[in-house]
Amino acid sequence: MTKYNHVHRSSPVHRHDGGQARVTRQTIATETPVAMVYKGMPHVVMMASPADLEDFGLGFSLSEAIIEHPADMLSIRAESSEKGIVLNMQIDDEHFQALFDRHRFLPGRTGCGLCGVESLEQAIPELKPVPDTPGDIEPQAIYRAFEALHDWQPEKQATGAVHGAAWCSSDGEIRLVREDVGRHNALDKLIGAMVRSGMNFDDGFCLITSRCSYEMVQKAIQMDMGLMAAISAPTSLAVELADAHNLTLVALARDKTFTVFTHARRVAGGPAENSVQAS
């Protein structure tokens, strides 16, 4: 049976070092199928870390626009089985009917956010622009947050195999972090945890430890985040989507440097406006 909340395990390995081999043990991250089920209807199976699953279910439901408000989620219950974990979610009738009408089964996997989408129209949904947020984020705040992030990632330290998503105050203090083997999952867990804690998305910025793909930007826009900062590079579609929807996209953040790809006005010291068109 899959153990809910057992996010890593120890495995025997042969370690080779300088031509010498020895038997030792290695901590490895647990990757578990998690089935998202709405009112008994299977919707998606994601490969995820088996922790913070209530956060995951709520965050996924909001960032994928299955529900519009936290109150639309009536209950979430995780059940372990021999093959994985079933996340049973009860949502209000109106949103369930809309989901039923869309009826798609989305077999997901780590690093994949668009598997099972049936058309180009579904791949790039309609999104509202992010509202303008007051105040500039100082570059030092972004540096400070990235420097502190390592200490907030116990699973990354233990296994080296998970992604992190963090919410930071405007001065760079980390408020909340979630980890997962999947980068999209880590962000969804952060979103769910923030909503359940009553935190606002218009006060601060988001850090992610992965590359910044289209799906990550889409989730940020859906939740009205003003600024997303990634440790790795963005894709062209991520830049285009951020630019079109008023999201400040910061990437390649490391060693006291970063690059602002869109809407640089939210970062102190930048130009009044910076609109990047990817080619």
Structure commentary:
With 279 residues, the chain is an alpha/beta fold. The chain has two domains: 92 residues, Roll (Ubiquitin-like (UB roll)); 128 residues, 3-Layer(aba) Sandwich (Cytidine Deaminase, domain 2). It contains eight helices and 13 strands. The chain has a six-stranded mixed β-sheet. Strands 5-6-3-4-7 form a five-stranded mixed β-sheet. A two-stranded antiparallel sheet has the order 1-2. The chain is globular. The chain starts with 7 loop residues before the first strand and ends in a 17-residue tail after the last strand.
Ends apart, CA distance between termini: 49 Å
By oligomeric state, this entry counts as single chain
General shape: globular
- Report Rg: 19 Å
What is the mean pLDDT? Answer: 89
CATH homologous superfamily of the largest domain - what is it?
Cytidine Deaminase, domain 2
Q: Can you give the helix content as a percent range?
A: 25-40%
Which strand-content bin applies to the residues? Answer: 25-35%
Count of discrete domains? 2
Helix/strand-derived class? alpha/beta
Total number of strands:
13
**Cross-sheet strand order for the largest sheet:** 9-8-10-11-12-13
CATH class of the largest domain: Alpha Beta
The CATH topology of the largest domain is given as Cytidine Deaminase, domain 2
Biggest sheet overview = 6 strands, mixed
What is the N-to-C order of secondary-structure elements (H for helix, E for strand)? EEEEHEEHEHHHEEHEHEHEE
Flag low-confidence runs.
Answer: 105-113, 274-279
**CATH-level-2 architecture of the largest domain:** 3-Layer(aba) Sandwich
Counting DSSP H or I runs of 4 or more residues, the number of helices is 8
